[in-house]
Each structure stands twice: as C-alpha cells, then as structure tokens.
Amino acid sequence: MARFQLPGATIFLTILIWAAADQLVTETDDIRAKIRVVAVTNSNLVVQPLRGAPELFSIRISGRQSEVRKLRDQGILRLNLTIDEFHTLESEIGLRKLHLRDEIQGIPELAGCVVQSVEPPTLDVSVDRRIEVSIPVRLRPGAMDYAVDPTLDIDSVRATLLQSRYDELKDSNPNIVVDAESYLREQPEDQPLRFSVPLPLKAETDVGTLAIMSIVPDSVTLRATLRLRLVHDTIPAVPIKFLVSHTVNNRYLIEFRDPNPILTLSVDVIGPQDAVDKLKSGEEKIFAMINIGTPNAFADGSYQFLKPEFNLPPGVTLQDNQRTEVEVRLIPRSQSDIGSPLNTEPP
Questions:
Q1: Would you list the DSSP string of 190-225?
Q2: Three-class SS of residue 307?
Q3: C-beta of residue 57 within 8 angstroms of C-beta of residue 27
Q4: In degrees rounded to 5, what are phi and psi of residue 278?
Q5: How far apart are CA 91 and CA 85, in angstroms?
Q6: CA 268 → CA 56, 231, 276, 310, 317, distances in Å?
Q7: DSSP secondary structure code for residue 175 in this structure
Q8: Rounded Cα distance, 235 and 268, in Å
Q9: C-alpha pair distances (Å), 227 with each of 146, 185, 222, 272
Q10: Is the pTM of this model over 0.90?
C-alpha cells in the first residue's frame, strides 16, 4: 500500500515547494500604464491633468513572480488615481504636483506589488470645485418694434460652475442673456407670441464668458407682441365716384370748377405691406366716394369743397395732411339733359 502512496506525496510536496518558492522569490519588472485621475465619488471636486500631460507611464514594480507576471501579461494597464479631500483643503483649489510613486502605491490594480519608481515621476493636475450660485437672466430686446414689450417668466437661475472661474469673474456683472430678436424674427405680427427658450450654458460678463456646467431651470418662457409693420406708398389714379339719389341725378348736373377735371386722385396711404402691395397691383381696388345727399347746400349755385371717403382695406389709412377735396357745384339740368346717365356708383 505504501508503494502506491509515494507518487501522491511527491506531487503534494512539489506543490508546497513551488508555493513556498513563489512566496519567497520576488521579481522586478517594468510595466506600462495609463493613469486616469478622478475625483472621489460624491464630492464636488473636479480634477484634470494639465494640457500636455504624458499619456503613458513606465512603472517599475516588484513582487511575487505570479503577481508580476499577471500584471505584465495585461499589456498596458489602466490605473485610476482617486483624488480626495486629503489632497486639498476645503477652500484650496489650483495646481497640484502629484508624486506618482506615493500616489499609486497600494491601489487595488497593483495589489500584492511594491512600486519601486514611476517615469515620469510626477503629474501636474488642476484641482477645482463645483459650486452652485444664482445667475441673473437678462433679456436683450433688440431693435424690433413691439406692441407689447418682451418679458421673461424668471429673472435668475441656479447655475453649477467651477469655483475658480466664478471667483475670477463674479465681480464683472455675469448674466445669462436671452436675445429676443433671434426668436421673434419672422414671427407673425400683431398677435401674442409665446416661446420656450433654452438657456445657453454660458454667462456674459464685462470682460469675458463664464462657462456653466448646468442650470436649473434650463429654459425660460419668452412673451411678446410685435407691432404691425406699416409702409408708406402712393396709389395713383384712384377713381372718384359721386353717390347721388336717382331724383337728384335727374334734376342736376355736377360741374367742376376746374375746366379740365380729372376724375381720379393720387393718394398716399399707410398700411401693412401685403395690403398696400395688393392696392398697388390692382388686386384690391379703392375708390374716392363723394356722397351728395341733398342739393340744398348748393341752392345759391356756389361751388363747394367736398371731401371724399375711401373704401380702404382693413389696417390701411390715408397719410395725414393730404388734400383730397373736390370743388364742384350742382346746376339744374335742361330738358334735353334729363335722363342722361351720370356715373355715380363704383363698377
């Protein structure tokens, strides 16, 4: 029986000798690693390597053969170097020089090994803090013509940003600016407008721009009413139409003081662009209408100045201080004139 137990014992002793050798024999080797600097979880720290920092580091480690071999076999290691409050005082921010041999000694990824050296030996980082402050929201109305001036539903937001940048610019009048004109341009006129406007992640200051990480709320409501834009133009050859009763038309003729009267007027109007364009093109027609209700005012045979009325489209008016009066009188018709037609109504 003992003869068959000897090989098993030999194997067991061999394993013990190998394990003891692995524990006693140390190995030293150089491995390559990328080191990612991160802030401790649930803190307001913000840690970043400075621009131009090396991407790869050479780390000389020593330890049990199996541990060193395992790290070497992974190729390029990716190590997380956590920065916590022990690296910076509560109110202290700025540049730090991290001595990497001490910093990465004992991190979980290198457990079981001793860090002998790191090349390059140091890493420069910036340490900052996220803070939350109130930033005013300012409306820039622009040069548009408003019937109701633009307004916002809030005047400030809670902004999260870097303490270092805020300390630098907090006395330079930081404001989050909403440019009303960029949202209201090409919008309908003469009706209430309402927009939800996303806020930019930046504040304007007197000396520069202040970057913002997040804001609450992240949008505002913009309200305004644009004034109806009016244009001035001239409508030539507006026909004059006399409105008279059938009885007056049978008894009287209308005589102009001007020996060569022109039965049209040129009038200057003000109104919305589309309405005035239709008048200019003839798509919409207007008339100068003179109402002669009773001939009593003309009983002495004198000439009278009569001011016409115009059938202008909605929103269109005559410009002030223009003369449109027509000077006429009524004269009795002769027997041969009775029954002669008089153009008294618009076509």
A1: SSEEEEEEEPPSEEE-SSSEEE-SEEES-EEEEEEE
A2: coil
A3: no
A4: -65, -35
A5: 10
A6: 79, 10, 10, 12, 9
A7: B
A8: 6
A9: 5, 12, 16, 11
A10: no
d(CA 144, CA 298): 52
* Residue 31 structure tokens: 């491995």
Tokens of 128: 């900052």
Domains of the chain, start order? 21-120 (no CATH), 129-226 (2.170.120.40), 230-332 (2.170.120.30)
Q: Per the structure block, which two tokens stand in for 270? A: 């003000």
> Looking up tokens 């008016």, which residue turns up?
317
The tokens for 224 are: 């305004």
The C-alpha atoms of residue 169 and residue 185 are separated, in whole angstroms, by 32
Length of the chain: 347
* Per-residue model confidence as pLDDT tens for the chain (347 residues): 445 455 555 555 555 544 544 455 689 999 999 999 888 888 888 988 999 899 899 999 999 988 899 988 999 999 988 887 655 545 578 888 899 999 898 888 888 899 999 999 999 998 899 999 999 999 999 989 999 999 999 999 999 999 999 999 999 999 999 999 999 988 998 899 999 999 999 999 999 999 999 999 999 999 999 988 888 999 998 998 888 888 888 888 888 888 888 888 889 999 888 889 999 998 999 999 988 877 777 777 888 888 899 999 988 999 887 778 888 888 888 754 544 444 444 43
Strand order in the sheet with 288-292: 309-310, 288-292, 230-244, 264-272, 317-318
Check: CB of residue 318 under 8 Å from CB of residue 268. yes
d(C-alpha 71, C-alpha 30), whole Å: 10
